[in-house]
């Protein structure tokens, strides 16, 4: 894939502050970056906006809102407010989408937790639409269901998008989370215009932390070219985010890691 | 659930030889057992049959055939032969189903590997029907796709059953592997008469070996009563296998572990 559509998801180089990550993109001709909220908080929103703008980068997404389910109505309302502030940050940065990690069930039935996810997103859809930011439901790998997301397949995310029925509500397709699905290409086609992001990394079965043991593009078994082709066929013309959460990489030479990721991205047919 | 429909999957007590496991069932009034092929091989098939018959146990299933995909046609043929012999063993033991773990892609594209799974199963369907044994496609958890099974959802297993179109080809629904799916109840209903087995254990996110880090029934987050209710609604009237693969349990007091599993099974509403 061409460099012009490449975005660096900032957690690929998590140890770096925003200014360092932005500079690393600019030096490599990476035209876009995905910014995480904790990294925004480190410098403040106004400064984050100017760091990105001064470097001439696009912002492909802001990570993340969500974690909607809770047995406590008060807690659910707090999380919706938290996600609303994340929409504000995405709007300020000019990001087209806020990535939603929808959250675990927190001891509730999965069906009840999923209903709370739908309620939470639906309650923010108008606000997001007004801010010109889409809410991107990211299904996470089913191994993360107990800690991270009750939304565990692209089919389920597509169902939610249809159910809510707002153009501001979309899906984020992360290859790591969805590649195993025999219906992944069919569900990408079904998503169509509702695709609001595509993330790339690779899968070797995690042996440590399930959230941060991802493989370098090309080192695992994901057929990334097929997933990219399916996204293109569905109409996706936005950025491809390299998002490789890896504790191993974070302890190593991140410049070399990023160089390799860019080369591997460009090698995707 | 009532003890009359309980089966002990032998790998719950993997360190025990067949005679010991059978005796443990008989002493507890567990009327059924699922037998693994390595345990059959330890004593020979004829002896295995007499051990089970003398104790008056049913055999709910034989584990396992499968591992169909390979880039080598010779290797694929060998695996089909291996699975054919497993059908013979299931027939000798009076087991209604041979559980199929379909195998990883072995470096091939997932779509090609899945086509080989379908070819392998289809080539054995008539043989299995003649032996009065069903071939039970067990979708495994998507985290196991690189090592164990390209069939990673009940939807996909149901698709394969429909595609092959033989009454001898069915699905095995293991709660551990499928509980995360927002469509699990719908897919169980879709399977209907094609359900050939239901396995119970529980999920706490594995932190060690992904194949043998399962939780005791009731210690995790799987809504087993909902899955049992969905299986019953789909028409399932066979045994429920307790199948808790746990390296931790295998190192401990297996009699106490089994007693607890039976109590927890009976507590499922």
How would you explain this protein's 3D organization?
The structure is a homodimer of 269-residue chains. Chain A is 45% helix and 16% strand. The first copy, chain A, has 269 residues and is of the alpha/beta class.
Quick rundown:
Chain A has 269 residues and is α/β, with parallel strands linked by helices.
Task: Write down how many β-strands of chain A occur, each being a DSSP E stretch of 2 or more residues.
Answer: 8
Rg measurement of chain A, Å: 17 Å
Q: Give the name of the CATH superfamily of chain A.
A: Divalent-metal-dependent TIM barrel enzymes
Overall pLDDT of chain A: 97
Largest sheet of chain A: 8 strands, parallel, barrel
Amino-to-carboxy terminus distance of chain A: 6 Å
Q: Note the quaternary state here.
A: homodimer
């Amino acid at each position: 894939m061409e460099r012009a559509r490449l975005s660096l998801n900032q957690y690929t180089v998590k140890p770096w502050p925003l200014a360092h990550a932005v500079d690393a993109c600019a030096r490599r001709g990476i035209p876009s970056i995905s910014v995480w909220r904790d990294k925004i908080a480190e410098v403040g929103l106004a400064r984050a906006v100017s760091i990105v703008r001064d470097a001439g980068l696009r912002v492909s997404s802001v990570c993340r809102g969500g974690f909607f389910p809770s047995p406590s109505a008060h807690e659910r309302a707090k999380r919706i407010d938290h996600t609303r502030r994340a929409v504000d940050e995405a709007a300020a940065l000019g990001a087209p989408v806020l990535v939603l990690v929808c959250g675990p069930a927190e001891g509730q039935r999965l069906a009840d937790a999923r209903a709370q996810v739908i309620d939470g997103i639906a309650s923010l859809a108008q606000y997001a639409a007004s801010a010109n930011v889409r809410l991107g439901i990211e299904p996470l790998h089913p191994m993360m269901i107990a800690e991270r997301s009750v939304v565990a397949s692209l089919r389920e995310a597509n169902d939610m998008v249809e159910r809510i029925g707002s153009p501001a509500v979309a899906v984020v397709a992360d290859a790591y989370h969805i590649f195993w699905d025999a219906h992944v290409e069919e569900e990408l086609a079904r998503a169509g215009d509702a695709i609001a992001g595509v993330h790339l990394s690779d899968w070797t079965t995690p042996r440590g932390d399930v959230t941060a043991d991802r493989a370098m593009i090309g080192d695992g078994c994901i057929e990334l070219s097929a997933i990219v082709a399916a996204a293109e066929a569905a109409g996706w013309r936005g950025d491809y985010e390299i998002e490789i959460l890896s504790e191993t990489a974070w302890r190593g030479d991140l410049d070399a890691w990023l160089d390799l990721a860019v080369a591997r991205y460009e090698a995707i047919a």
